[in-house]
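Final report, closing paragraph on structural work. Over the funding period we assembled a curated collection of sequence-structure pairs, and we close with a single example.
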Amino acid sequence: MSDKTPALHVVHCMLTLLFALVALHALRQGVRSPGAGRRDRVDHLLHFAMATAMAAMPWSLGPPSGRTMTVLFTAAALWFPLTALHHRTVGTVSALAGRLPPAAGMAAMVWMSRTPDGRGAPVHETLAGGVPAAHHSAAHGHAANASVTAAVITVALTACLLGLAVRSLTRPMPALRTATDTAHRAAAADPYGHVRDGAMSLGTAVMLLLPH
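Its predicted structure, as stored:
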């Protein structure tokens, strides 16, 4: 942490507090919600796992990496949309839309669990290992293409998460309590769930852009 600027340190502290609160909320909901079904309990467990990992990320040597983390969050990213479709014949679009924020957050975790630069060994290490001089320009070209691709994916994920954060954080506004449609009535009845999803989406979007 010694190379962090004071401003970045403050931002990391704020994000850690945000994710810690979300983790505690998810854990409490998973343990204390009476009558919660299996899907709801798994949802809360996954929210807790992601929030805990995100809270620790700013203070580690880098984003969580390794096959286990990749497999876990890939499965989690698929869990949310697939379980929205299970045994459902009506309201499919609405159900999928409601589970997009956690799915996008899990996908972002998968992206951040890759190697920090988004590719394999650095180019200079490969060249030092004996790549012929005739291939130097090709190696640098591949590295540049990989960097551009990584930047595009990061920007797309960030934009998606920011949009979902705005949607989640504005849905539970008091004015919605007088709404007549089912989706808005549900949002007003459970505002904390949408606040949690919005906070996670916003925090994850910031983490995608910050060095950690």
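The radius of gyration is 20 Å. The chain is about 70% helix and 0% strand. We thank the funder for supporting this effort.
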